[in-house]
Amino acid sequence: MRDWNLKTGDPRSLILAADARFCTPDYYDDQIWELKLGGGDPPAVSLQTTFGLRARNFRIFPIFTQGEVSLSNPEDFAEPPHILRFYPNFLTIHFNPFVELAAVMEFWAAQSQAVAGRIRLSNRGSSPRQVKLELAGLLMAAVGGTPMAPSELQAAPVLSGRTADLAPVLFMTGGASATSGSYPTLTLQMDLLPGGFHQISWSHAALKSEVDSFNLARSIAAHNWDAEYARIEMANQGQVEVHSGDLDWDAAFAITQKVAYSLFTGPTENLPFPSFVQVRNPDQGYSLVGDGSDYGPIWNGQSAFDAYALANLILPASPDLARGLLLNFLATQDEEGVIDWKPGLGGQKGNRQAAPLLVNLAWLIYKFTQDHAFLEEVFPQLLKFIQAWFTPQRDRDQDGIPEWDNPIQAGFEDHPLFSRWYSWSKGIDITTTESPVLCALLFREIQNLVQMAQLIGRSDTIPVLESFSDNLRSAVEASWNHATNSYHYWDRDTHATPSGLKLGERQGSGQIIINQTFDKPLRLVFHLHVQRHSTHQARIFIHGVGPSGQHHIEQIAADRFLWFLELGTSTSERTYISLEYIEIHGLSNDSTVAVYSTALDHLDHTLLLPLWAGIPSKDRAHILVTQTIFDPERFWRPFGLPACQKNDLEQEEQFCQAVHMTWINLIGEGLVSYGYRDEAALLVDHLMQAVVSALKKDGGFYRYYHSETGKGWGERDAVGGLAPLSLFLKTLGVRILSATQVALEGYNPFPWPITVKYKGLTVLRQKEKTLIFFPDGQTSEVSDPTPCIISIDSS
Q: Residue 743, by phi and psi: left (phi above 0), alpha (psi -120 to 50) or beta?
């Protein structure tokens, strides 16, 4: 494994949590820690948590005393802390608190309610020295709690306290004494001969009773530390190790894999296999009601978009974890074939159809494992899942083109056309539109399902699947606009892409007179702006003529408005070729109603997804790449591709400039598949600038990055904001299948040689050739860019 030497200012993310590969993390009481290399009061190298907001803060930190000098602040150390190793549940740092006194500190999250550490002090000088080591436990308890204080349990000195429903206990081996000076500490005096060392371990546990906490802490301290570390290191040898020539990139890719594994938790009685949370930080992990039903969106389930992104980061090392993600989804399938959008470890349900990425997930797993039995197991359920998309519940006009149920389901909840949460959004009901994005996802799903059917002898299913995909491709291609060089949304019933008009506005109840006839049928969307104290009882009647020439009076009842704070939106079910007037009832005089025709000509990053699906011809793909994606006036930005081509209002600027790493990874894959490898490398470079900056400045990834400035925002270390490792490897043309097999295609588009290592396998990707070194010493050289698989010669 690679030895790092990262310091403050280098890329880093020092969250520490129980690892689902070694234990079963407690989804309901998961105590998550973060190592700080300085800061705090007092400034120190400290491991800290809030126990999921059950304490204001809890810190464990060392104090070193030599003679009359006591040090805890790393700024005063003879050599500041450097990070040597980082895994999801294990961290190693080294520093010199005093000249010629070397310290190595290790931290291990053994399980959800227990953390441990080991400190090794070495005398590098030529004279004996006496050193006092103090391990402080500083608890800022919740209201009604008590701070850490010296205590004795079963004749062992400890520090104990209480916060909320927890009784944290800190224990140290080696005959420490518990003292209460400036801070409560466990203290040891050490005599170090020249060249000698002293090593102690400590453990902490926080359960509901002090005795239980102590027993758990003491049992963790009794573990064979070296054996535990060997297990951890062996498991993490499966991480892909990148040597790019840029240490920041290498560290970012390694940290990405660390964070990816750290997001796994469970299983529980509600999902059969480990699942994941979107973010795992010290303020999360505690369910006050005890069953997870009080968790918010970042902890209440696994979505298909995030599952697909995570699987790309943990394969080939952890196929069982990846399989488990898919099987968790399949466990929720109902008789009609519907699979829940976001099943959670606490039994939560998304109550809508999962996004069509599950076949892609299964196919991704198969490409790494070549497990035919797995395909045979999951194929029937995946087939029913795809068929469920074409039922009247999701294909409302039964034209073979399904519609989304909700913008959240579509993986872009801040969508300027469909979001209901912002005043600047159009608030259009997404079920009244058809989307090239959904079509592209389904098209790719069906293409992969056809390949599965061919492999497992289910050719009987292929004709119907191909008819679905042909229809989807035709619909996407029909939405292409030569003026904008882009695909567009279209209305479900008219199949047009209108620009949108404001048709009228008024305060209070009454009429909005329109008396207009239109060249093409329009659908209406209403915005109600009410005062905070108002009741939402407005009813609207639309008087107009439909496309068939029949006169209609359509009622929009109060319950058809969707509300967020003082804004309510509703979309007409019918379309109109002419409008006479709008009647409004039940609206207070201090409230406003505005009526618009729906606008579907907005351009966003998801409309680039047909490139990933393989839908456009080579000529059309060339136009999409060169005149839309890489045009600085359209999508090309210094730090990636923004969510929207442009924003019309200042309020939506942050949302429209956001780089969504999950979507950009898919678009980048599309670039590679159409042969735009150099362009994909440039995209990776832009993305990495934003990612590395966040890791260096703030010690973590962010959910979003600003496409113009690179600044990150949103939750730290979110699954949707990790470095684009899978896109980097696809762009490089390297797919590690195992320690004895690697797939190559194309050439190295980056300006330097790149080495990729995996479990003893080394792939050196140069500009004109690739050298492969297998674990047993065999080597191979490849100069042909044609796709190939290189395997070890077992003869």
A: beta
**Phi/psi of residue 389, nearest 5 degrees:** -70, -20
Nearest to 574 by CA among 548, 599, 594: 548
Helices (H), 237-357: 247-262, 304-314, 319-330
Q: What is the pLDDT of residues 223-269, one digit of tens each?
A: 999 999 999 999 999 999 999 999 999 999 999 999 999 999 999 99
Q: Say what percent of the chain tops pLDDT 90.
A: 93
Instruction: Give the span between the Cα atoms of 197 and 390, in whole angstroms.
Output: 69
Max Cα-Cα span within the chain? 101
- Residue 322 three-state SS: helix
Give the phi and the psi of residue 36 in degrees, each rounded to 5. -110, 130
Site of tokens 């969510």: 643
CB 362 within 8 A of CB 371: no
On whether the CB atoms of residues 520 and 498 are closer than 8 A, the answer is: yes
Q: Which of 192-196, 420-424, 438-442, 585-589 has the lowest mean pLDDT?
A: 420-424
What residues contact 391, with CB distance under 8 A and at least 6 apart?
336
Question: Residue 411: phi, psi to the nearest 5?
Answer: 80, 15
CA–CA gap between residue 398 and residue 412 (Å, rounded)? 25
**For residue 402, what are the contacts with CB-CB under 8 A and spacing of at least 6?**
389, 390, 394, 395, 434, 438, 442
Per-residue model confidence as pLDDT tens digits over 359-394: 999 999 999 999 999 999 999 999 999 999 999 999
Q: Where is 633: in which H helix or E strand?
A: none
DSSP code string of 710-753: --EEEEET-GGGS--HHHHHHHHTEEEEETTEEEE-S---SSS-
Summarize pLDDT for 645-690 with one digit per residue, the tens.
876 556 677 889 999 999 999 999 999 999 999 999 999 999 999 9
Contacts within 8 Å (CB) and 24+ apart, 692-698: 692/11, 692/248, 692/249, 692/252, 695/11, 695/12, 695/13, 695/248, 695/251, 695/252, 695/255, 696/9, 696/10, 696/11, 696/12, 696/248
What is the pLDDT, as a whole number, of residue 535?
Answer: 61
Q: Which of 527, 786, 583 is nearest to 675 (CA)?
A: 786
- With b for 16 or more beta-carbon neighbours within 10 A and e for fewer, the 456-490 pattern comes to eebeebeeebeebbebbbebbbebbeeebbbbbbb
Which run of H or of E encompasses 577?
Answer: strand 567-585
pLDDT beyond 50 at 795: no
Q: Which amino acid is it at 26? A: D
State the pairing for strand pair 741-744/788-791.
antiparallel
CB 158 within 8 A of CB 178: yes
